[in-house]
């Protein structure tokens, strides 16, 4: 069974390795795969985007342990969610809101039998709760044994607006910014796949292209990224640094 790990811990400290150790203590045969540990600190929106886009590429039954947790030790819930093709174990802070259309059932992780210890650290639930719970799921423990069932509608969702579609334009927002400075919108690429299109932002128009190489070096263009969303990019450059845009800023496809 596969357990993936997604955190904002970085790799200069031992935190990721310790989480893997907590998993191995339960079953050393579990395969762990690092999605990324370079999510910007406390950036739940970025983690949501990464998790949502990684999920389709893993086998059925994969357990995703995702820990971006600025509320660790507070009253925020720890949860596990069964999806159509696997599970997510994470804090209930909006991180999994991009996958809730796949959700089947969920529990609050309030059964300490499946934690690393009865008195978990107030600052490291990744080690003491989330990693052990992911390992127990991977060894066949059922979701209902991990805690109390909760209503799927009660799970925290990030306030990302819906795309507004009119006869002439698609209005969305920037939902993520990747390592290259590409500004990734919440507008699905399939909306423009069979027509020519442009992006309008701050009263400027940028052409829609097929690849980065279709633009001159330093040119800003719209693309359908490998993730399937429309993005604003700069050929051999950083669109975010140039345009000074941020997550949540409005963008229009025409």
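Sequence proposed for the structure above (254 residues):
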């Amino acid at each position: 069974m596969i357990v993936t790990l997604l955190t904002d811990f970085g790799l200069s400290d031992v935190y990721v390795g310790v989480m893997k150790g907590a998993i191995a203590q339960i079953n050393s045969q579990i395969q762990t795969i690092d999605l990324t540990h370079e999510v910007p600190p406390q950036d739940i929106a970025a983690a949501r985007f990464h998790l949502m886009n990684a999920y389709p590429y893993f086998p059925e039954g994969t357990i995703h342990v995702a820990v971006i947790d600025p509320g660790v030790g507070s009253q925020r819930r720890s949860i596990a969610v069964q999806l159509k093709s696997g599970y997510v174990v994470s804090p209930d802070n909006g991180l999994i809101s991009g996958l809730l259309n796949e959700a089947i059932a969920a529990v609050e992780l309030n059964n300490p039998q499946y934690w690393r210890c009865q008195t978990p650290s107030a600052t490291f639930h990744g080690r003491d709760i989330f990693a052990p719970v992911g390992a127990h799921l991977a060894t066949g423990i059922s979701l209902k044994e991990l805690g109390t069932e909760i209503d799927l509608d009660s799970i925290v969702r990030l306030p990302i607006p819906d795309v507004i579609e009119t006869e002439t334009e698609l209005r969305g927002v920037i939902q993520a910014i990747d390592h290259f400075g590409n500004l990734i919108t919440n507008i699905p690429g399939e909306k423009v796949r069979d027509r020519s299109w442009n992006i309008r932002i701050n009263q400027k128009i940028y052409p829609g292209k097929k690849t980065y190489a279709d633009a001159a070096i330093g040119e800003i263009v719209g693309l359908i990224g490998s993730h399937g969303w429309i993005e604003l990019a700069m050929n051999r450059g950083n669109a975010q640094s140039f345009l000074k845009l941020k997550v949540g800023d409005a963008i229009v496809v025409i």
